[in-house]
Amino acid sequence: MICPCSGLPAGTDFDNCCRPALDGETWPTTAEALMRSRYTAFVRGNADHLFRTWHAKTRPDDVGIDDETTWLGLEILSTAGGGIDDSTGTVHFRAKFRDRLGAHILDENSAFVRRAGRWMYLEALEN
């Protein structure tokens, strides 16, 4: 099964892509890899991964997952920074989803920071 994030590199199966991060076995080494793992956490309903990868400064008390939302696909549009040797990075992505109101596209430019050597989601930036 191809990873819900489409795989990194493209077409990689879930066990060799996001599963180790979601299970807490590894930590994503780039901002893009963290973004992909967070998308996969939404798809698979893994609130624990979302909580531990969200910077404490901006994390809400409840990172709950809406059971009525079905995530349909992820497209990475661009990245800036966020590499193995960087301390900050951004990932611009589009995620398709469906909820009780219909089909939607989330277009977001996300900011990431490295904290204690680990990438963390900080916040959505204005596009």
Looking at how many chains there are and whether they match, the oligomeric state comes to single chain
The level of helicity is 10-25%
Gyration radius, rounded: 14 Å
Structural class of the helix and strand makeup? alpha+beta
CATH topology: Nuclear Transport Factor 2, Chain: A
Strand arrangement, largest sheet?
1-2-3-4
- Based on CA inertia axes, which overall geometry fits? globular
User: Number of domains in the coordinates?
Assistant: 1
What is the correct CATH architecture? Roll
Largest sheet: 4 strands, antiparallel
- Strand percentage: 35-45%
Q: How many DSSP H or I helices?
A: 3
Query: Whole-Å distance between the termini?
Result: 33 Å
